[in-house]
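Sample 1 of the test manifest.
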Amino acid sequence: MGIDRKYLSIKKETNIIKKVIDNSNWRLIASVFLLTLTGIVMIYSATFFSGNLNFVAKQIIAFLIGVILLVFLSIISYQTFQPYYFYIYLFCIFLLILVLFVGSTYRNTKAWIDLKLFLFQPSEIVRILFILAIAGYMDIDYIKITKKIAKFFVSIIAFSVIVILLILENDFSAVVVYFPILITVFYLSGINKKFLNYILSFFVITVILFLTKSYLVLKEGNLFKLFRWFLLSLTGLNKYYFFSLGIITAISILIWWILKRLLFRVSIYSLLLTIFIIYVSYSLVAFSHKFIKSYQNKRIIGFLNPYIDPAGCGYQVIQTKVAIGSGRIFGKGIFQSTQAKLGFVPEKHTDFIFSLIGEELGFLGTSIVIFLYLIIILEGIKITFTSIDTYGSLVAGSITAMFGFYFFVNTGMCLGILPVVGLPLPFVSYGGSNLVASYMAVGILNSINIRKFLY
Amino acid sequence: MDWENVPYIIKNEFKITFNIIKYFLFSFFIIIFIFLINIQIFKGNYYYNIAEQNRLRIYVINAPRGNIYDRNYEILADNIPSLNVFYYPQSTFNRDEISTLLSILPQYKDSIFYALKSNRITLIAENISRFDIFRLLYFKHRISNIFVTVGYKRRYLYNENFFHLLGYVGEITQTEYIQYKSKGYHYCDIIGKSGIEKTYEDYLKGTNGALIMEVDAKGNPIKVFKNLSPQPGCNIYLTIDKNLQLIAREALKRTGKNGAIVGIDPRSGAIRILVSYKDLNPNMFIKEILKDKNLPMFNRAIQGQFSPGSTFKILTALAALNENRISPQTKFFCSGSFKFGDKIFKCWEKNGHGYVDLFDAIRLSCNVYFINLGLKLGVDNIEKYAKKFYFGQITDIDLPFEAQGVIPSKKWKKEKLHEEWFEGDTVSVSIGQGYITVTPLQLALFAATIANKGKIYKPYVVERITDASGNEVYRYTPILKSEIIIPAHIWDFIHRSMQSVVKNGTGYAAYFKDCCLAGKTGTAQNPHGEDHAWFICFGPCETSEPPQLALAILVEHGGKGGAVAAPIAKEIFLAYCKNKTNISYVEDHISLSSGKIKEYGD
C-alpha cells in the first residue's frame, strides 16, 4: 500500500475531536440513549409506588458515568488495548478474586463490592474486559492457521478460570453470557470450522438431552410408551442405558453408511467423533442430577411446563407472560400496570422490566424496544464488517453477539420461550454496573466505527 | 494486524461466518416478534382477563332472603344477621394455622377438614359467638385464608310448626350447583331445599351484592374497586292461616301419632292448613334426624300415599247416584259381613246394620252397602269418577315433590302386577281399600270439591309476592281446573248425608253446636299396623254461601277415624269460627263477610 501510515497517524491525532463528531455512529448512540430513557421511565414507574426514588437516581448517575466512559472510549483508540491483552486478563482475574474476598452477598450471590456510594458488580466490567483480552489474544498471528487450535485450548483454559471464579461467587447467570462471546470470537478468528462444529453440537445435544430429562422427570405419560421408555433409558433414568446407546450407535452407523452410498464424502473419523460426542453428552446428562441444585432444576421445570406447578416454580413464568399479554396493543398506560405493580411479576425493575414495558406500553412499546435493539445489532454488524483491522472486527463482533444474546435471553425469558436466567435487559434494566459496562461496550463499538477509515 | 494484510480467502471465510451469525441474530428478532404478536395481539384479551382476575378479588355480600308471611301478614320466616367464617383457598395452609384454627373453633373440626380437602371457598362456621369472633380476629395474623363475613341466617319464627310447608334452606350441593349455575349461583350459596323455600327460590333469593377489591400478589387488599349493594329477595304472602295451622298441629301432636292435616278453602283452592307430623325444627338442623324412623323429613300431607278407607265411599255413592244405578231410597241388607266368592268382607258393625238406605249407609259407614254399590257400578265407573276428582293425579300445588297416588283399574293392574282384574278387587276399591292410595291433599281437595258442588280449584299456597320495596310482582288468581257435572239434588243429598255423619253418625266426635259440619270418617286397614284414621269434612254448611273450609285429617295408625281424627276437625273448626267472629280478615280476593256464622249457630 502506498500510503504513509506515520503521516496518517499524526493527522489522526490532530483532528481527534472533529473526527469523533464526524464518524461517531449516531444511530447507535441515539438508540442506546432512547433505550436508557425508556428504562429510566419504566424504573420510575416500577418503583415510585413504594415512594423510593433511589432506583431512578442511581440509574441516572450510572447513565451519566456511562456517557462519560462512552465519550472517553470513543476518543481513545481501541487499538491501544490490543498489546495489553494479557494484563487486561490478569486484571479480570484480580477483580473476580477481589470480589471473593471483599464482596458482599445479595440473594445468595457474592458478586458485589460495596463502594459505600453504590454497589459495584465487577463481573459486568470483567465481561467487557474479557472481550478485549480474548480478541487481542486471538488476533495475534491471525494468518497462521497452525497456531489456532493451540489458541483455542488456551482461551478455553482462560475462560475456565473465569468460570470457576464466577461459580465460586455463585453467579451462574454471568457465566452464560460468555458462551456467545467465545463462539463468535472462535468462529471469526478462523479456527477449523469442523472442529468448532463438533464442540458446538456437543453442547447442543447435551442441552437438549438435559431438557428432555428434566421434562421426563416431572411429566408422566403424554408420550408414546415405547418412545418414552427409550428417552428414559437415554437420559439415564432407567437401567437400559447401554441398550439405548447401542441403538443410537447403530442408527448413526446406518446413516453414515447411507450417506456413503449416496456418494457423500463422510470420513470414518467424523462418524467416530459423532458417536464419541453423543456418548460423552449422554454420560454427562445421565449423572447431571448430582450437580444441579434444586432451585435450578425448578427453574428448568418451570420453563418446560409452568402449569405443572402454577403456584410454585411456574409462577414467575406464567405471571410475566400474563403481564405482557394483558398490555394488548396499546398497553394499560404508563404507571397503570396491575400485574407488575401489585407484585405478581417479580423483579419488575430489573430482569423482568420487559414485561413491565409490555404491560404498560403494550405491543407498541415492546415493538419500539425491539426496533431499537435491532438498530443496535445492525449497526454492530456493520461496524464488524467495516472495521479497519481484524482486532476491531473480533471485538465488535463479540460485543454485538453479547448484546444480541442478552436481548434474546431476556425477552425470551419474559415471553416464556427460555428458562428464567437472571440476565438483565441492557440499557433498560435497573443496575448501575450493567449500564456502565454496556455504555463502555458501546464506546468501544463507536471507537471502532470512528476509526474505520484510513485517513 | 490489519485487514489489508489478511489473504482474500480468509477474509471471505470471515465474511461467510459473520453472515451466518448475522442471520442467527436476525432470526432471534423474528422469533421474539412473532411471540409478541401472538401474546399481545391474538391472546391479548385472554391474558388481560387473567390479569384482571389476578388483581380483583370478589367478596360476595349475601342478599337477605325474602320474608314469608301468612295471610294475616304475620311473619313466618325472616332473617337474622350472623357472623360466618369462610375458607378462601389462596395460599397453602400450614400445620400451625390449622392447629390455631382448631383451637379457636374446636366444634367445627369436621367442616374445617372438609374445607381443606375441598380446596374451594367453603363455609366453615355459621353464626359463631362473639367470643369466638374476637379470638379469631385476634389470631388473624396467624391464620391466612380465613375470612369472617356478616351474613344472614334464616329464622323460622314458629320452629317446627311450618316445617313441611315452608321447607328449609341449606348450602348448595354439588348437583344443585350444576343445575343452578346458569342462574348465577356460587359455591356456599344458600338455597331452598324443600317446601316454599324450594318452589319460590327464584323470588326469595334476591341478588347478591359484591365488594370487588384490588389485591396485591400476596392477597392483601389495596383498594375498593367496586361496591355493588345486595338486593333483598321478594316477600311471599301465603294463604296459610297461622292460628289454624298452630291449632291443627297441636291437636295432631296430642294424638301422639304421625299424621297430616290439609285444609283448603273450597271457594278458591287456597290452602289454609298444611300440617305433616312428624316434623322437625329447621332452625336447629341435626343430621341424626335423617335416620329417625318417623321420617320427619317426609311431608305426609302431599307425599304420603295412604288408603282412603271409608272416606272413599262418598265417591262410590256419587258415582252410583249419577250413573243412575241406584236411587237414594235403594236398600241393601247388611248382615255384618259380605261373602264374595271364597272371601268374606266384614262390615265394621259385627252384628250388621240390617236393611239400610244410602243415607244411613253413609251416616253409619256401612261397608256391605257400598260393596253392593261397587259391584253394581264396576271398577271402570269408579275409576272414571276418581279421575274426575283428581285422584291418581298430581293436583299441581305449588309445593315440591308431590305424590300422585294410585287409582287402580284393569289396565293398571295388568301393567303393574301382570294380573287379571278380579271382582274382589272391585269390592275392595268401592270401600276405599285394596290397591287404591291417595294423598291427604287429594282427599282435602275431594272434600272441597264436594263442598263446592263439583267445582275443582287448583290448590295453591302463595297468594302474592312483593319485592323488597313493596311493589307487587305476582298475584295468584284462582284457577278452576274443572267442573264435575252432577245434578244439584245429588249434591244436596250427599251434603245432607255427610252432615248427618257429624250430627248423629260415625263422625259425631266432630259435632259442636256453633257450626254445622259435613264430614265422613274413614278407617283404612293397612298391612303395616293399626288402621289409619281419616276424617274429611267441610263447613260451615247450611248457610246461603258455600262452605269456607274443607279438611282432610289423617292420623297414621290412629285407629278409628271417628274417634281419633274427627275430634281434631272439631278443634280446628271451633278455632275457625271463633277467629272468624273476632278478627277481621285482611281483604282477600274473595270478600269474606264476617258474622254470618252466628245466625246459623243453632
